[in-house]
Amino acid sequence: MNNSKIFVFVIAVLLIVAVLIELSVPKRFIWEPTFNPNSKEPFGSILFDSLAKSSMKKGYTVKHTTFYQLLKDSVKTPRSIIDIHSTYKYEGLELKSMLDFVSKGNKVLICSDKFTSEFSDTLQFLYESAYFSISSLKRAASKGLFRSNSYIIWEQDNLYPKHVYKTYSDFCESYFRLDKDTIYEYEPDDVVEDTVYERKEVAESEPAEEEREPAVRDVRLKKFTVNETSHEWTPYAYTDRKYDGGEYNKKYPLVLRRKWGRGEIVLCSTPLLLTNYGIMDGENVSYVYRVLNMVSDYPAMRMVDIPPAEEHISQSPMRYFVATPPLRWALYLSLLTLLLFMIFTARRRQRAIPVVKKPENHQLEFTKLIGTLYYQDGAHGDLVRKKYTYFTEYLRREVQIDVDDEAEDDENFSMLAKHTGLDEKDIKHRIRATRNACRNGMSMTVEEMTMYIDYMNEIIRGIGGR
Predict the structure, then answer these.
(1) Burial (0-12, 13-18, 19+ Cβ within 10 Å), 26
(2) Phi-psi map region of 400: left, alpha, beta (phi>0 left; psi -120 to 50 alpha)
(3) pLDDT at 145 over 90
């Protein structure tokens, strides 16, 4: 074995080893919530969309659009819109478009663990949000805290019985509130900078002190405003970290529903459960079904806002070679050596040039062979019918006459008489006799076959065929 063959063998072995290493490395998932309809990652939505499409009987689609565009559509039938985001940032025109869309009799399901203040103030609800941490989720899983410290309780309603779901607490850290927020405000003149005061509520009718020394620590509240969740919201699911199957310790709503105009708005604070992970979690998939069922009355469409594809860090073992300078240069030199080897061994080597003969035309022999086979088998009728098929196609192509159309026989025969110079009555007799014989599928003698073929050949020759 010469040196070139040894070199090729070594390169092939190295390539095989590299492929085996690549195949043996376990797949690493990307745990970034994207809700991408094409993503197979845990927090993508390809499985969620597939489940929704198969379970929602009125139909389910995924589309890149906005509420402003939906409001301008000419579709008049009610629809259900599903919008899933980690942070719901609709404000201004888009928020107004959403509310106008709902008020016309449509339904909207919004799943998010964060909302803007304009959105929550407009819809009149309070919520608490928390930052989702992948590291916190991994620590909980490694310590065996899965399904042990957080519960989702779906209260009994008209459709479903009460059910308790166990899940990671990180998935239901964000929740809605049914209580009130009190915000105290002071007049600017009442407060001295860099001074700490103690809050003390007094009646608004009580006269305020004219002057206030910095050392005085009791401050009169001039006025206050109250924010609270509207009573029009109806809670359906709660979270309780210390639920023991009996009394609630303290329950926080996860799913709210209310009327808006002629439509309905459903809010859900667990968007990560409406992903591929939520579908693969067999114990909690019924929670996803219950949430989707709240908007399944109409054809549903999930709005997506897919950002430009971001470059993810490569997980290939070759990344280690490229990141280490000595190994990187060794890899580059190996590739350069392989390239030079391919260039020098790919030079042209002279060899005998074969003489290429002109291809022979065997169509005539093939036609004679087929005709002989039909003749020997006595299939004279089949031979006439094939000839008739060619004859009718020839007339359509050359003179635009369809002899199979009996309604136009008189006009067709007159035109054929002009083209061929034959007598019109003779043409009528020949074509009708041949046509009837072919359509009836009757067997024929050699004399009858010769007669019908001669009929067709004479007409073709009269038109100018060969």
Answers:
(1) exposed
(2) left
(3) no
User: pLDDT of 190-228, one tens digit each?
Assistant: 444 444 444 444 444 444 444 444 444 444 544 444 577
Tell me which residue has tokens 């039938």: 77
3-state SS assignment for residue 179? coil
Mean pLDDT over the full length of the chain: 77
Cα–Cα distance measured from residue 137 to residue 67, given in angstroms and rounded to the nearest whole number: 34
Indicate the pairing of strand 198-200 with strand 218-220.
Answer: parallel
Compute CA distances 26 → 22, 29, 316, whole Å: 9, 10, 11
Closest CA to 104 of 322, 220, 283, 265: 265
Q: Which residues contact 81 (CB under 8 A, 6 or more apart)?
A: 67, 70, 101, 106, 107, 108, 109, 295, 300, 301, 302, 303
Q: Using DSSP, how many helices (H) and how many strands (E) does the chain show?
A: 15, 15
Report in angstroms the alpha-carbon separations of 72 from 2, 254, 450: 75, 32, 73
Length reported for the chain: 466
Q: Which helix (H) or strand (E) holds 259?
A: strand 252-260
Q: Please give the share of the chain, as a percent, with pLDDT higher than 70.
A: 79
- Assess contact for 176 and 254: CB atoms under 8 A: yes
Quick check: 304 and 83 in contact, CB under 8 A?
Answer: no
**What's 39-89 look like in SS3?**
CCCCCCCHHHHHHHHHHCCCCEEEECCCHHHHHHCCCCCCCEEEEECCCEC
Residue 318 reports pLDDT greater than 80: no
CB environment 327-364: b (16+ within 10 A), e (fewer): eeeeeeeeeeeeeeeeeeeeeeeeeeeeeeeeeeeeee
Gap between the Cα atoms of 279 and 35, Å rounded: 13
